């Protein structure tokens, strides 16, 4: 049986809340002050701490710091001072949810039902940690660059909570994938995840999509429709391009977030819902507020936990990692064994990828279709990768030297049209050293060089014997 610690200095509230929680099948311990609550926490670890904000000897939110394990205990704050600022402060301080007095019974019941059995939650935490241990993968997200590791750290902290999340990033950076991963790593994973792109739906239909409508509420409404907030109950709702939402709808969205209730179009009946909201935008939210495209109060309510998604051009070797991943998926689907040539890999790094991961995935798919066995830079419509400036490559600070050497060599080969003697001269190394390095970089790949290459190598290697590759070679 899950157990709840109820902290409130009002005997009447303490009494009826205790009876209600017991009636829902939970054991309840009570405390009427911070001191009494702290004493209880030294003796046992509850599944939920349900605490009033204002207590005789301090603030209930201080109990967050008293918990030995933040992984296995939820803190839900009860406040009589309902405001956006109060809610944000509570969630940022570590509370996983909050209730406004007088407490809404259905909302409290939803919070209690969300509590997983102890063994289930330990399993979920273990799953999350195992994901983090895997090289370059968390949930549905792939990447091992430093910006992605920072993203993984943020996800591991926010996913187990009920805090609203605002994803900020360029188009194609994978905002919906990140939102799905947050849901899958959260306590709501067994309930629905519903995405809605506010910019892709007619402004006149967004309200109906969000809140639903009654039959006959407008022309064409020939039946009752359950909206996203109703269908996503106890789950997660992802609103992409939230700054495209009309101001009057933003007011209604804010009301749902603050009260946990909404009304279908065409009725005055309030419907309760327990939904975690993840919003996203490819605009600067601060600029959207300044331009009047987004309400400031809604921005602050959504911005409890902002997450910046790095563009692909800032993710270093993730470009190659993702390209190889997409190619491996296609090879598995089509039962083929296609691969990238070194020049194609160099072209990937040379491109700026304004469309980010989405553009890269589309390119790999097109190149896969056009290539026979080996994907070359020209295996794309209009030679899209060759249009980028291949004489300049971007390397992040901290990139391992071996990786720097490989990328410089492959980019130089591409610049020289894969003429290896010319590339060796540009790099200031012997032709033999160039081939040796290519052999290392392409270990295990067939067709490292063709007969013409072999003749070139044989003809030039002897004159290079006197040159010291250890002195002039790439480091």
From TrEMBL:
Domain spans labelled Response regulatory: 3-116
Chain residue ranges for the region called Disordered: 452-475
Pfam families (UniProt xref): AAA_lid_14, HTH_8, Response_reg, Sigma54_activat
PROSITE patterns: RESPONSE_REGULATORY, SIGMA54_INTERACT_1, SIGMA54_INTERACT_3, SIGMA54_INTERACT_4
SUPFAM superfamilies: CheY-like, Homeodomain-like, P-loop containing nucleoside triphosphate hydrolases
Modified residues (4-aspartylphosphate): 52
GO biological process: phosphorelay signal transduction system; regulation of DNA-templated transcription
Molecular functions (GO terms): ATP binding; sequence-specific DNA binding
Keywords, sorted A to Z: ATP-binding, Nucleotide-binding, Phosphoprotein, Transcription, Transcription regulation
Domain Sigma-54 factor interaction stretches: 141-369
Superkingdom in the source lineage: Bacteria
Coiled-coil ranges per UniProt: none
Protein name: Sigma-54 interacting response regulator
Natural source organism: Aromatoleum aromaticum (strain DSM 19018 / LMG 30748 / EbN1) (Azoarcus sp. (strain EbN1))
Lineage: Bacteria, Pseudomonadati, Pseudomonadota, Betaproteobacteria, Rhodocyclales
């Amino acid at each position: 049986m899950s157990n709840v610690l109820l902290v409130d200095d009002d005997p009447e509230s303490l009494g009826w809340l205790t009876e209600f929680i017991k009636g829902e099948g939970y054991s309840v311990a009570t405390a009427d002050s911070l001191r009494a609550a702290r004493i209880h926490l030294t003796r046992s670890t509850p599944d939920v701490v349900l605490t009033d904000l204002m207590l005789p000897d301090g603030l209930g939110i201080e109990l967050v710091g008293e918990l030995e394990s933040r992984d296995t205990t939820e803190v839900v704050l009860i406040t009589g001072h309902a405001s956006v600022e109060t809610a944000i402060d509570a969630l940022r301080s570590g509370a996983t949810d909050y209730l406004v007095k007088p407490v809404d019974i259905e909302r409290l019941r939803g919070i209690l039902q969300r509590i997983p059995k102890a063994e289930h939650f330990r399993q979920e935490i273990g799953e999350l940690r195992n994901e983090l241990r895997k090289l370059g993968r968390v949930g549905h997200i792939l990447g091992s660059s430093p910006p992605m590791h920072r993203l993984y750290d943020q996800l591991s902290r926010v996913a187990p909570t009920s805090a609203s999340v605002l994803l900020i990033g360029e188009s194609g950076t994978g905002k919906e994938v990140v939102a799905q991963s947050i849901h899958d790593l959260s306590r709501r994973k067994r309930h629905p995840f519903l995405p809605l792109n506010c910019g892709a739906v007619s402004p006149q239909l967004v309200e109906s999509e969000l809140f639903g409508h009654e039959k006959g509420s407008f022309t064409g409404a020939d039946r009752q429709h359950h909206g996203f907030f109703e269908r996503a109950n106890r789950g997660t709702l992802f609103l992409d391009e939230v700054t495209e939402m009309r101001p009057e709808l933003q007011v209604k969205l804010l009301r749902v977030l603050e009260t946990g209730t909404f009304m279908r179009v065409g009725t005055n009946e309030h419907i309760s819902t327990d939904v975690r909201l993840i919003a996203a935008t490819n605009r600067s939210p601060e600029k959207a507020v300044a331009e009047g495209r987004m309400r400031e109060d809604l921005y602050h309510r959504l911005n409890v936990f902002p997450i910046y998604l790095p563009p692909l051009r800032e993710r270093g070797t993730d470009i190659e990692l993702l390209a190889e991943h997409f190619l491996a998926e296609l090879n598995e689907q089509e039962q083929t064994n296609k691969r990238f040539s070194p020049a194609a890999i160099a072209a990937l790094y040379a491109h700026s990828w304004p469309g980010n991961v989405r553009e890269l995935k589309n390119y790999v798919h097109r190149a896969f279709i056009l290539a026979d066995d080996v994907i070359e830079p020209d295996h794309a419509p209009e030679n899209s990768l060759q249009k980028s400036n291949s004489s300049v490559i971007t390397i992040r600070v901290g990139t391992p030297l071996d990786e720097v050497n490989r990328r410089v060599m492959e980019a130089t080969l591409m610049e020289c049209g894969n003429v290896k003697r010319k590339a060796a001269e540009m790099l200031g190394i012997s032709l033999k050293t160039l081939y040796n390095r290519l052999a290392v970089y392409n270990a295990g790949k067939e067709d490292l060089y063709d007969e013409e290459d072999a003749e070139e190598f044989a003809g030039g290697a002897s004159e290079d014997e006197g040159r010291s590759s250890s002195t002039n070679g790439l480091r």
